[in-house]
Amino acid sequence: MKKVLIGVITLLVLTICIWLGYKITLKKENNNDLIKVRLAEVTHSSFYTPLYVAIEKGYFKDEGLDIELILTPGADKVSAAVLSNDVDLGFAGAESAIYVYQEQEKDYLQIFAGLTKRDGQFIVSRQKIDNFSLNDLLNKEILVGRQTGMPALNFLNALKNNNIDLDQINANYAVEFAALSGTFIGGTGEFVNLFDDSTRKRSH
What we know:
Strand order of the largest sheet: 4-7-5-6
Order of helices and strands: HEHHEHEHEEHEHEH
CATH class of the largest domain: Alpha Beta
CATH topology of the largest domain: D-Maltodextrin-Binding Protein, domain 2
Shape: elongated
Radius of gyration: 26 Å
Strand content: 15-25%
Structural class: alpha/beta
Number of strands: 7
Low-confidence stretches: 4-17, 198-204
Helix content: 40-55%
Mean pLDDT: 79
Number of domains: 2
CATH superfamily of the largest domain: Periplasmic binding protein-like II
Number of helices: 8
């Protein structure tokens, strides 16, 4: 009876080992079948959490895609990465495709999807202002990012929609989007146009 029990246990262990080996091999084969997609994102933001969750939870792999997310600050740099085939897809503002088209390049960027419907920008002041209004921006230096970039365009459009005279706005376009918070902390500008996480961490 004891020999029979040992035999049954041995057979069960062997069966489990063979099954686990088969599952591991199958998983490796499935991973080899995944299509590698290199995705350049213009900024890392909590507004894009659904994308990060989908990657971390393996939802893309369930659909046969292996996503490599590459931080590429600036829509112009994202465009360059796509056009040079350093990445397969670029995640940036729609203006990047327009600028490439205007340059009459042989290869154009194709916009095929939208990830967000609202912009996550915030105005940060160097000094505390009670009862702030957009009129407080008049004749003050404001760091807004690259002149042709989406953050600057959205910012100026929001002011225009609120009947703010843009001729009285002293917009500083000399600082790249990725360097806005650091430059502001360094003492440049009275206001800065920032994007979600950097605003919460570095606001004065």
